[in-house]
Amino acid sequence: MTRLLTATLALMFTASIASAHCQVPCGIYGDQMRFEQMLEDTQTISKAQSQVGEIAKGNLQEAQAINQAARWVTTKEEHATKIQSTIAAYFMAQRIKADGDNYTKKLTAAHAVMVGAMKCKQSAAPATAKALEKAIFDFYRVYEGKEPDFAHSH
Fold it and tell me: DSSP for 65-117?
């Protein structure tokens, strides 16, 4: 039994050193598959570029404008999601306590921020970003119990 335990520990130690690149030293990953996945991703990129070109009817300048617009939409979406994640994972899960002061007001204000971020995802209208900014400041007022006093501009 002692030999089996020693052999098992030695194998585990050796495996973890040999596969240090992996967070879980399981040895199931294959480099060849990674290259194949990257090449498949490259084919998808190529097809997407071709489709953008077709939408732009071959006009490279318009295709570039469509590409840039998509990148801005992606950026807008990522930042709205980041705000939603901060509200959900930080404030609602950790900081706003059911037995704390102004619980309902804090939840209501946090929810307004979540909805404001959602509306920014749904729309390209600048008014949605202004409404989100207002909701964040309103949440700050309820959460901190004072007026915002920090530099903010965009």
Answer: HHHHHHHHHHHHHHHHHHHHHIIIIIIIIII--TTSTTHHHHHHHHHHHHHHH
